[in-house]
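Progress note, project year one: complex with PRP.
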Amino acid sequence: MELHRDVERILLSEEQIKKRVADIGREISLDYQGRKPLLVSVLKGSVVFMADLMREITVDCDIDFMSVSSYGKGQKTTGVVRILKDLDHDINGRHVIVVEDILDSGLTLSYILELLKTRGAASIRLCTLLDKPDRRKVSVAVDYSGFTVPDEFVVGYGLDYAELYRNLPYIGVLKPEVYTK
Ligand code: PRP
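Model obtained:
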């Protein structure tokens, strides 16, 4: 596949991602034998990962989606998020796996995890495809992590810059001139 003109280089190829997603799916399938986890995708970045991961999970599971937004740039650092779309499921007694594309500052995820904890889930685990620990502001416990990535602007496989590049099948590093101009 041809490299997108705004992408400097490929960080994770389709093949690398596919293999790692299969590994995680296998691990989850083993860990959740005899249970029926609810996979919760946080829109929109995680949809591509979610779609691939769920097909690598062999135990019965169901899925749900949540959409959140920070209140604005100034508020982002507080970690307060606004819920644009809540879960359809009652998670009381459920084994929840939150599926994310990237764990960055940790603010969004820590807010979501705290919120879900108040709803009586039997367990809550976090599965993230990418972990960017250099950017962490609050500590978040990760149960399943695909790749640790450096502090670079990554796009593709669901991840965007200004809503673009989510459709790229690989994860690439964006050319700095794209976001500095
Ligand atoms: C990304 C990602 C996480 C969050 C992680 O979403 O999907 O939800 O940021 O960042 P944090 O660890 O600093 O909180 P984004 O707000 O870009 O929305 P999107 O998924 O719709 O692209």
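The pocket of PRP is lined by residues 42-46, 100-109, 160 (CB under 6 Å).
The first strand starts at residue 7 and ends at 12.
No further modelling is planned for this target in the current period.
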